[in-house]
Design a protein that fits this description.
By secondary structure, this protein is an alpha+beta fold. It folds into 2 domains: 3-307, Bira Bifunctional Protein, Domain 2 (BirA Bifunctional Protein, domain 2); 325-403, Anticodon-binding domain (Rossmann fold, 3-Layer(aba) Sandwich), CATH 3.40.50.800. It has helices at residues 21-28, 44-63, 77-82, 111-118, 167-187, 234-237, 268-273, 296-307, 335-350, 364-374, 384-387, and strands at 32-36, 39-42, 67-68, 74-76, 93-96, 103-106, 130-139, 154-164, 194-200, 207-214, 220-225, 230-233, 252-266, 276-278, 284-286, 288-295, 325-329, 355-358, 378-382, 391-394, 397-400. A hairpin with a 2-residue loop joins β20 (391-394) and β21. α1 (21-28) packs across α8 (296-307), α2 (44-63) packs antiparallel against α5 and α2 packs across α8 (296-307). The model has no long low-confidence stretch (mean pLDDT 96).
Length: 404
Amino acid sequence: MYQSDLISKTRKQIAQNEESLNAQILIKAGFIEQVMAGVYAYLPLGLKVIQNIETIVREELNKVKAQELLLPALHPKLYWEKTGRWDSLDVLYKFTSHYTSTELALGSTHEEIITPIAKNFIQSYQDLPLAVYQIQTKFRDEKRAKSGILRGREFIMKDLYSFHISESDLDEYYELVTKAYHNIYKRLGISDITLKTYASGGTFSKYSHEFQTISDIGEDTIFVCEKCNIAINEEIITEQNHCPECGNTSLIQKQAVEVGNIFKLQTKYSEAFDLNFMNEKGENELVIMGCYGIGISRLMGVLVEVLAQNESKMIWPNEVAPFNIHLIALNTDSPEVLQKAEELYKNLHLQGHSVLFDNRNERPGIKFAEADLIGIPKRIIISTKTLAQNGVEIDGEIVSFEDI
């Protein structure tokens, strides 16, 4: 893409109404635009980052035999009444149709939708296990939207639901998803600061698990066991002041941001919707369920918070960056520079690279400052100076055209 064609432009100043670093940088760099508190538009550069995160998540979930689908955002009251959450979930957006008087909700989560749908496809033990996921916009009426895209009223989330014949089958899949999550965070470049964290299982089981990325801006307090490289959250630490895996009591307190969670739902939703399967003896049993969430848009914000060097410089991980290469042409008043830059741009595309080509007639200082903001990790510079040496500049060194 030609940078001159981008609809968004970088800004010289940070957004004064934004307190969080992620929103300040993303707005300043032209990735997102705030529409209202807790609601953001994703501009072309921002959408490319979101789509790249989604691709990583899809590839890792497909490896654990999860099938992608897309569930509706509009939910009937009936399903939420069956689980008792119509009145108990305080973040649920509710409204009434002007024409049918039907009471509806905007989906904040999808257990109430996927469970009755699964009834149509699960009859026998031979239909299990089954795992399905979606990547979709969620809506939550947060009392106070804050921290930029880390906690919004509208956000993009991946939710996965699994269905099983037994506890042991659920346990086995739970571990597969745990490994898939570790792979996702590794590809995002944050695996060294993202820890599997023990949390309360509530009414479902003894524990659930969160995945927490260590960051000073985090709202959550976790306690890290450096022996096991896992953590426990603040709620659990009040009950047991030791590591659940090795018993270590020398735990280090840190602040963190939750970037994923996994729960063993057991039969809570199966009971509500009478979701059964026929076992090998011909007897009916309740299906056992698990759910697994990852905040896609939140991850984008977390990457900025932990990887940005300052409010004017971001470096995206290779797999996440909006483009593979930022090609920057200097001295654009030179026909030779522009011709050679165009040739290089086309050749890079033929090699399979995605390229943002800064072909604008701007001063070098402006181009470099904006390149720092946009944060594409690989930068190729072409100018009269590099042409004199029959090449381009990459990481401060001249590389010949033949070697690109």
